[in-house]
Amino acid sequence: MRAYAKNHWLRFVKYSFFGTLAFGLDLGLLYVGTTMALIPYYIAVPVAFLISTSLHYIGVRTFVFHDTSRSVAHGYYLFIVIMCTNALVITLLIAGLIEYAGAPLFAARIGVGAIIGVVSFYMNSRYNFKVL
C-alpha cells in the first residue's frame, strides 16, 4: 500500500508539472485572445483551455500515464470528454465570478484553474487511464 501511495503521489507531481506548463499556455492564449484579438472571455476561456489541454495530454500520456492499457486514440477521446466538461464548468464559474462577484478575469481563471486541475487529475487517473 505504501508503494502505491508513493507512486500515486509521484504521478500527481508529474501531472501537476505538465498541468502548470499547460496552464501557462492557457493564460497566454487567454491574454492574446482577450486583449489583442478582442475575443469575449466566454469564448476565449474554453478555446484557450481546450488547446492547452490537448497539448497537456501529450505530456501526461507520455510521462505520467505511460503504463496505461488504453490506446492513444481512445485515451484522448476520454481525455477530451473530461476536458470539454471541465471547459464548460470553468467558463460558467469564471462568468459567475466576473459577472456576480466582480472578480478580474485572470484572478478568476487562476482560482478556478487550481480547483479544476485537482479534479482533472482524479478524473483522468480513475476513469481515463484507470490507475486508481
Explain this structure to me?
- There is one protein chain.
- By secondary structure, this protein is mainly α.
- It has four helices and no strands.
- The protein is elongated.
Notable features of this structure?
132 residues; 85% helix; mainly alpha; 4 helices
Classify the secondary structure makeup into a structural class: mainly alpha
Q: How many H/I helical runs?
A: 4
How far is the first residue's CA from the last residue's CA?
Answer: 12 Å
Morphology call? elongated
Q: Which strand-content bin applies to the residues?
A: under 5%
Q: What are the segments in which pLDDT stays under 50 over at least 5 consecutive residues?
A: none
Could you describe the largest sheet, including whether it forms a barrel? none
How many beta-strand elements? 0
Provide the succession of SSEs: HHHH
How helix-rich are the residues, as a percent range? over 70%
The average pLDDT value, as a whole number, equals 91
Fold blueprint:
Blueprint: H1 2-36, H2 41-63, H3 72-101, H4 105-128
Outline of this structure?
By secondary structure, the protein is an all-alpha fold. It has four helices and no strands.
